[in-house]
Amino acid sequence: MYKLDDVLAYNRSFVENKEYEAFVTDKFPEKKMVILTCMDTRLVELLPKALNLRNGDAKIIKSAGAICSHPFGSVMRSILVAIYELNAEDVYVIGHYDCGMTGLNSERMLEKAVNRGIPETVIDTLTHAGINLNQWLTGFEHVKEAVTKSVNTVRNHPLLPKDVTVHGLIIDPKTGKLDLVVNGYDALKATD
């Protein structure tokens, strides 16, 4: 386990040695893009390299499975902030093969929560309050369908400007190869 003391000691050295200078940029994405991708650890460095991104080129939003599950949730809000406040013009939804959200089983996950100390009464209370934990904690069967669904959620949002393109891709977490799922330019042409 990585210890907080180790993090803070490294950070002091990082700042003292001015290693941050290589990363200085402003808050506006240079390539005017916002990316919704998965939180998978294999993508931390691979995804930016595979897309030829440097620090400051894009806004990157991470969500398990690259899922935009609710049109008025924090993921969609972040996308809209990137567009309206930070001048992003293109949205890229980038899922990946071998995703942990593939086949995610909500019952098994809730069982693990109970085993880690969450009282079953808490789960019962949430269920009785109308929260569908099984739906909320369910993944997907096919990454391509999940990417397409997230693209559609973003593209059809009532506050998304019609001139913003929304693309869908899948990255191979081993090689960085991108497979195109949805070409946002095609959808833009269809509305003209």
TrEMBL record:
SMART domains assigned: Pro_CA
Q: Which organism is it from?
A: Paenibacillus aurantius
Task: Report what the protein is called.
Answer: carbonic anhydrase
Q: How is the co-factor bound, per the entry? A: Binds 1 zinc ion per subunit.
Q: Which cofactor does it need?
A: Zn(2+)
* Catalytically driven reaction(s): hydrogencarbonate + H(+) = CO2 + H2O
Q: Which domain of life is it from?
A: Bacteria
Per the record's keyword annotation, is Plastid included, yes or no? Answer: no
UniProt GO MF annotations: carbonate dehydratase activity; zinc ion binding
Family affiliation: Belongs to the beta-class carbonic anhydrase family.
- State the CDD domains in the record: beta_CA_cladeD
Where on this chain does Zn(2+) bind? Answer: C38, D40, H96, C99
Q: Which residues form a coiled coil?
A: none
Q: Which UniProt keywords apply?
A: Metal-binding, Zinc
Q: Which Pfam families match?
A: Pro_CA (PF00484)
Q: What class of enzyme is it?
A: lyase
The chain positions of domain Glutamine amidotransferase type-2 read 99-192
